Amino acid sequence: MAGEKLTIYLALIRASLFLKLSLLTIPLGAIVQGVGFTTEYWTKQDLGAFGTLHGGLWTGGIKNAPGWLKATQAFEVLGFIAAVVALILIILYIFVPATSGKRIVFILSILACFAAAGCILLGIIIYGSEVKHNLSWSFALCCIAGIIFAISGLLLVVDMCKR
């Protein structure tokens, strides 16, 4: 057990600053995206004395959803999957001896970060162009997650260029 802790500690010491930053931003982005696309606060409509109406990607189900909403759902789910893949790959690259330092794992983690950013941002563009109500905090979280993954991908590209 002590040997495993030492191995993890040494792997973190050897990692560059950009790699350490991406190790923080990728899980943060995955959490933010996970909360953002699963919660029902993408839109907010004030109904006066009747209260407030909130809507999310999944409130009406998927069977009768319009095409643009299905596209948004698909891109947000694909973005989350790419986020989880990016997280797994960066952990493999840093901590697992069999894959540590393998260039292909590093390049795949860069591609997964940019795929996550692209899918997430494309989903919010589709949703934002169709919705007529006020956008709410779940939508904002997905916007932030897309930006976090773009930054994570850039951090990894800069790290690769510095080697």
Shape: elongated
Strand order of the largest sheet: 2-1-3
Structural class: mainly alpha
Beta fraction: 5-15%
CATH architecture: Up-down Bundle
Q: How many E-type strands?
A: 3
How much helical structure, as a percent, in the residues? over 70%
* Broad CATH class: Mainly Alpha
> What is the alpha-carbon Rg in Å?
19 Å
Please report the number of helical segments.
5
What number is the mean pLDDT? 89
CA(first)-CA(last) distance: 32 Å
Structural descriptors:
mainly alpha, three-stranded antiparallel beta sheet, 163 residues, 5 helices, elongated, Butyryl-CoA Dehydrogenase, subunit A, domain 3
Give the SSE map.
Layout: H1 2-14, H2 17-38, E1 43-46, E2 52-55, H3 67-95, H4 103-130, E3 134-135, H5 137-162
Antiparallel strand pairs: 1-2, 1-3
Helix pairs in contact: 2-3, 2-5, 3-4, 4-5
In summary, what is this structure?
This protein has a single domain (2-162), classed as Butyryl-CoA Dehydrogenase, subunit A, domain 3 (Up-down Bundle).
Characterise the protein shown here.
By secondary structure, the protein is mainly alpha-helical. The chain has a single domain, classed as Butyryl-CoA Dehydrogenase, subunit A, domain 3 (Up-down Bundle), CATH 1.20.140. It contains 5 helices and 3 strands, in the order ααββααβα. The chain has helices spanning 2-14, 17-38, 67-95, 103-130, 137-162; strands at 43-46, 52-55, 134-135. Helix 3 runs antiparallel to helix 4 (103-130). Keywords: Membrane, Transmembrane, Transmembrane helix. The chain crosses the membrane at residues 12-32, 77-96, 105-129, 135-158.
